[in-house]
Design goal:
Number of helices: 17
Structural class: mainly alpha
Helix content: 40-55%
Order of helices and strands: HHEHHHEEHHHEHEHEEHEHHHHHEEH
Largest sheet: 2 strands, antiparallel
Distance between the termini: 33 Å
Radius of gyration: 22 Å
Strand order of the largest sheet: 1-5
Strand content: 5-15%
Shape: globular
C-alpha cells in the first residue's frame, strides 16, 4: 500500500479545509497546539483519519481474511494477506493512524467538550472513541488504554476485555449527560443533530455488548438497550467524497483510481464468496444468483463470475490460460460509502439477541429484516430468493446468521465480516483446500470443487497458523511495541491465539 500515508495526509487536509480554516496540526511545526484549535476543526480531522484506515487498509485485509477477496493475476502486493499472514510492520501505519490521529484527537475533543459543558459533542467523540478502540482490540487483543496518551512512552498493555469494559462505561456515561440540541461540525451526521448521535452510540453499544456477550454477562444491559429500541433507521456511513485526487473514497483511491496514480490493482473476488452468491449444478449450469452479486463485484470481460483462490496470484508462467480480465473486481466508485455500521448489521445482532432468548419468531423476523436491509443498501432485487436460499433455522442460529452476515458484509464491511467469523464460527471450513481449487504446478483451475458457504485453507497458508483455521489476530504493531518495554511477549502462536470474545 505505497500510497497509504499520502492518501491519509490528504484526507486530513480535506477534513481541516472543510472547516474553512486549514491548519496541518500533524506536520507543520509552526501550527498552533491542539489546545488552540476548536472541536469543529479537530473532530472532522479525526473522522477522516478513521475513514482512511477503516475504509481502506482494514477493508482490504478483512476481505482477504474473510475470503471475500483473493489476489489478482500477476501481482503479489497482498499475497501474504491471501495466505492469512500479517506482520508487525504491515499494520503499523494504520495502528499509528488510529492512535495518534484518531484516538488522540478525539481525546482532545472530549476534554474540550466536557470543559465547556458541551455534552453533545462529548457524546459524538466518545462514540467514535469507543468504536475505534473496538477496532483495535478486535485486531490485536491487547493494547495501551489506561496509560495511553498520558505522556508515558512505555504505557502498559491492557487486556481486551478490560478495554471493552472501559469504553463501554465511558459511552454509557456520555449518554447519561444532559445533551444540547447539536454537536460539533462533523461528516458522519452533517445535520449536527444529537439524536442521530444517540442512535449511533446505541448501535455501537449493541455491537460491543453482542461481541463480548459470550465472555461477559451483559444480558441485563442488552435487555434494556433492545427494549429502548433507539437505533439508526438507516446505514451510518461516510459519504463526503468527490472525484478529485485526495478526496475520493479511500478503497477506490487505493485500488481503482488509475487516473490519479493508483498502481495497485490487486483485489479480486474470492471463489468462496463468488460461488456462494452464484451457484451451479453438476453440469455447470447456474442454479441460483444472489441479486447483490452484481452490486458487490463486477462481471469479467466475458460477462461471467469466476472467483480467485486464496494463497496464489495465478502465476504468469507460459501456458497459464488466465488473465486479469478473467476475474471479478469489487464494485467501487470515487464516492462509495465507508460504512461504519449498517442497518443490516443491527438487524443481525437483534436476530442473534432473540435467538439466544429462544424467541424463534422474533429472531426470524429480524434475520429476514437484516437480509432485506442488505439488499436495500445494495440497491438490489431478490431478497425473498436469498431468504429462501438461506432460511432461518433456530436450531442452527449461529450458522444461519453467521453465513448470511458474511454474505451481506462482502460488499459493505469486510473487516467486520472477519470479526464475526471469528466470534460466531461461521462459515466453517469445508473438506477441500486451495490446492484442490487451483494447482500452481499444472495451472489447473477447478472451481466446481468448491462447496457454497464454506471456507478453505489457502495455498501456501501461514505455517504458524495451520490448516482449517482463520487468522485470529494481528501481531502487535511495530509502531506500538518496538520501543515499549511493557509490550507483552509474542511468539509464533500469536496468529492462532483468539481475542477475548472469539468463539464465544
Amino acid at each position: 500500500m505505497k500510497k497509504f500515508f499520502a492518501i491519509t495526509t490528504i484526507l486530513l487536509s480535506l477534513a481541516l479545509t472543510a472547516c474553512n480554516n486549514y491548519m496541518d496540526i500533524n506536520y507543520d511545526p509552526n501550527s498552533p497546539s491542539e489546545d488552540a484549535i476548536s472541536t469543529d476543526i479537530l473532530f472532522p480531522a479525526a473522522e477522516m483519519n478513521l475513514a482512511g484506515s477503516y475504509g481502506d487498509f482494514l477493508r482490504i485485509v478483512g476481505g482477504y481474511y474473510a475470503q471475500h477477496y483473493s489476489q489478482t493475476f500477476g501481482t503479489s502486493n497482498y499475497i501474504d494477506y491471501s495466505r492469512f499472514i500479517m506482520s508487525a510492520t504491515r499494520s503499523s501505519g494504520s495502528y499509528a493512524q488510529l492512535n495518534a490521529r484518531v484516538l488522540n484527537t478525539l481525546k482532545s475533543v472530549r476534554t474540550k467538550a466536557v470543559a465547556g459543558g458541551d455534552y453533545a459533542t462529548n457524546l459524538a467523540a466518545t462514540a467514535l472513541w469507543a468504536y475505534t478502540y473496538q477496532i483495535l482490540v478486535d485486531c490485536y487483543g491487547e493494547l495501551p488504554y489506561t496509560e495511553a496518551f498520558s505522556g508515558n512512552p512505555t504505557p502498559k498493555y491492557d487486556n481486551g476485555a478490560d478495554i471493552y469494559a472501559g469504553v463501554i462505561k465511558e459511552l454509557e456515561e456520555a449518554l447519561e449527560q444532559p445533551l444540547n440540541s447539536q454537536t460539533c461540525t462533523n461528516f458522519l451526521f452533517p445535520s449536527r443533530d444529537v439524536a442521530e448521535w444517540e442512535q449511533f452510540a446505541n448501535a455501537v453499544l449493541l455491537k460491543l455488548y453482542m461481541r463480548e456477550s459470550g465472555a461477559v454477562d451483559v444480558q441485563a444491559k442488552l435487555d434494556a438497550l433492545v427494549a429502548e429500541d433507539n437505533f439508526p433507521a438507516s446505514d451510518v456511513a461516510y459519504t463526503n467524497w468527490t472525484n478529485e485526487a485526495g478526496h475520493m473514497s479511500p478503497f477506490y483511491a487505493e485500488e481503482f483510481a488509475t487516473n490519479w496514480g493508483s498502481t495497485q490493482q490487486n483485489v479480486i473476488g474470492n471463489i468462496a464468496i463468488i460461488r456462494t452468491m452464484q451457484q451451479r449444478d453438476a453440469l455447470g449450469e447456474i442454479t441460483y444468483t444472489d441479486g447483490r452479486l452484481e452490486k458487490f463485484f463486477s462481471p469479467n470481460a466475458a460477462g461471467n463470475y469466476t472467483g480467485g483462490v486464496s494463497g496464489t496470484n495465478f502465476s504468469t508462467a507460459e501456458g497459464d490460460p488466465k488473465s486479469s480480465t478473467y476475474w471479478n473486481r469489487p464494485v467501487a466508485s470515487y464516492n462509495m460509502p465507508v460504512y461504519i455500521i449498517t442497518r443490516s448489521e443491527i438487524e443481525f445482532f437483534l436476530a442473534e439477541y432473540y435467538a439466544k432468548k429462544n424467541n424463534a419468531a422474533q429472531a426470524q423476523a429480524h434475520y429476514e429484516a437484516a437480509v432485506r436491509a442488505s439488499f436495500a443498501s445494495a440497491g438490489a432485487a431478490g431478497a425473498d430468493e436469498a431468504i429462501a436460499q438461506w432460511p432461518y433455522d433456530q436450531a442452527k442460529y449461529k450458522q444461519t446468521i453467521g453465513l448470511a452476515k458474511w454474505i451481506a458484509l462482502a460488499g459493505t464491511n469486510n473487516f467486520e465480516a472477519w470479526c464475526e467469523m471469528r466470534r460466531l464460527g461461521y462459515p466453517t471450513f469445508g473438506s477441500i483446500d486451495g490446492s484442490q481449487l487451483f494447482s500452481e504446478s499444472s495451472h489447473t483451475y477447478t472451481p466446481d470443487a468448491y462447496v457454497p458457504g464454506t471456507l478453505y485453507t489457502p495455498i501456501q497458508v501461514n505455517g504458524n497458523l495451520g490448516n482449517n483455521t482463520v487468522l485470529q489476530r494481528f501481531p502487535y504493531a511495530e509502531s506500538s511495541s518496538t520501543r515499549n518495554s511493557n509490550a507483552p511477549k509474542q511468539d509464533e502462536t500469536v496468529y492462532k491465539t483468539p481475542v477475548f470474545w472469539a468463539g464465544k
